[in-house]
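Good day; I would like, with your permission, to put a structural problem before you. The record follows directly beneath this note:
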Amino acid sequence: MWSGPTFTWPLNIAQLEKSLTSERRTWWTGIDLETGRAFGLASLLVDHDSQSMRLGYIITDPAVRGQGRGRALVEAAVARGFEKTDFPLITLGVYAHNHRALGLYESLEFKPTGASIETVVGDETWQAMEMALSRDVWLRNDHTSSFH
């Protein structure tokens, strides 16, 4: 559910080929070092023209949720974004009913911006919230990650 309707688990080549073509987007694949299997995916879109960064397409294997692996992927993407640019913010969108993802982002000090949109998924309407994390807040805290 983290990536909305764009990706589903398990990921397959057709899903990935649609999204891997942007030169402005960097991708992370979380790999379990014991099994060698992928457990998640995250991306960071850096737009130098608008001086903005957007975290997206965050998805983890449901079997490993709650183990800190999604956190490590998000931390790696955020750290890279702030290391490689001088942009003041990283944004993301999250569905309001995705309480687990909201909890993760809030624990990393992403804050709701007040902006939201409605998205139709199947026969339901989902509310997507915009959140942002400032460089100052990130640098003030020690967010270390084992994934780089």
About this structure: The first strand starts at residue 25 and ends at 31. The first helix runs from residue 13 to 19. The two ends are 24 Å apart (CA to CA). Residues 40 and 60 are 4 Å apart (CA to CA).
